Here is the input.
Amino acid sequence: MADGAAPVLNVRDLKTVFKTRSGSVHAVNSVSFSLKPGELLGVVGESGSGKSVTMMSLIGLIPSPPAQVSGAGVDFGGTDLLKASDDELRKIRGARIGFVFQDPMTSLNPVFTVGYQIMEPLRKHMKMSRAQARGRAKELLELVGIPDAERRLSDFPHQFSGGMRQRVMIAIALACDPEVLIADEPTTALDVTIQAQILELMHELRAKLGMAVIWITHDLGVIAGIADRVLVMYGGQIVEHAPVRELFKHPRHPYTRALLKTVPSVRGERAERLEVIEGQPPILRAEPSSCSFAARCPFAFARCLSENPARFDVGPGHDAACFYDFEAGAPRATVSAAAVGRPEFEGGAHAG
Amino acid sequence: MLDDTKSNKVLVEVRDLKMHFPIHAGVLRKRVGEVKAVDGISFDIYEGETLGLVGESGCGKSTAGRAILRLYDITEGTIRIDGVEIGHTPQPDLRKMRPTMQMVFQDPQASLNPRMSVAAIIGEPLDEHARLSKAEKREKVLSLMDAVGLNRDFANRYPHEFSGGQRQRIGIARALALNPKFIVCDEPIAALDVSIQAQVVNLLEDLQEEFGLTYLFISHDLSMVRHIADRVAVMYLGRVVELASRETLFADPKHPYTQALLSAVPEPDPWLEEKVERILLQGDVPSPSNPPKGCNFCTRCPQVMDICREIDPLGQEIAPGHQVTCHLYQTT
Here is the structure.
């Protein structure tokens, strides 16, 4: 992907805290990343790692209260999304940033036809006439590979299968030609053969339309096949960031390394015994003051318990939030001074 | 790992099992049709082995698991567990058999009573089926908690105080309480996170070795099934389309559906992933209330022939222990 190009989305130091009666939950802790034009950025993590909340936060989809979203800025084509008014955000969501959610049944309205729901953003954002919108809606259904598009426009969501519904969701997300598409576990609820169809469709659509995509998933297999770059999230933070092949070849965070080993494969070698990450993911009651993975980490040493590691550069376009240096096979000697020096993250580094 | 301990004794024998659910419609709730969730499946499970039962949602794999334990009154067929025919045994008489055959459910949240403590949940089967003193029962519950890796101190806690992985351990302990021989694990790891799945799978393997258990492991996760199962049966639309040893099935799948299914699984390795040749199936699974004429898979099969749309293929053993239900391999 175009390395020098200005990012379409630049997130700096994003934090989301949920204030509840039983205390606060720090769901997103100082997350910084950028999205380059045309690339597919994969975001991997387990439930509760903050991957969905991060994406919902930056586009103002998290209700506040109970949530408090703060940060140094979310730059989207010159607009700071954190400072934008509800009105401005509404004009961006669905038009310039499209969404596809995990469960296509609950994210489509059961009482409106599919055609109506695809036409809604076209009429609202693009001010199209009914006839224009209908024509475009038909094109969109054809684009996402739904046969007999004209007739299907007047069908209701329950008349579509799971995979077809997800295609409809993608059609809605793409309706206004967005610059960015955020897909939150779009294939998780689908069967593998249907997932393969949707992934194939995504390859085709990216080649045709060239939008930038953020693809949230817990499935490392999906990531391996579709992503250009990957963010690995744990405990509400980005613990590792690398180009996809670099990540799989040289994982530099103990969590990523462990995760890659716990996943069995249907083609590679079969392990007699699965590797296990002992323990549970953390519950984030306070802003982390130590490494959130330390309790489960076989490499942890004293420093990990007293200081939250910054993201250290470990290779070209590759950083990991870990005090252990896997290349040297020893704890890092230097203090955080060496941390995060990539230009797009200026000001986004947080060392503690 | 289990190859040396595996015996040739058949513990579970399923023949032509059918489970059809009636569809009622209209004011008079007239019977207008039936969902053929399981439509004639046969297989054996050997003592001490794990048979993986895989397929996509709606293929009938969970129904098959439940029907084999007679959680349903089956439509047709025979089920023999440990030499006893239970296919059409009335439910009250089945109670005597229950300790032999147990189940671990998919959703540990839904399958544990939120108002019962862990000790009460694990002890409930003992109340029903065993005559133990209070102290004996307590001791048995605590030893079960040890066996599945739960802290004894948590015996009086309630399910909501545990994480998903720990809840699944509670469900496993309950299934083990009566020293069963055969356990149906119905998607036991589907609701868990990747890092927790491995913990539970390893636990199931350890328990199998320790107690000599036989598993029917139902899952849609082919990579996990490849890890845990000795033999694998693939289901499609209520039928078993292929059954083979793990090595054979994953290395040399014969049925076009198995081939497509395996090719669709994403590979967590970018270099291998690039080389995977995907067989993309067109369309969706037909409704089990109205399966197509001929072979169930004929509407989506990339290698469909004329005969497939007319005649239902029979299961054939194309190599020792390798069964395929497909006209491509029909010799007679």
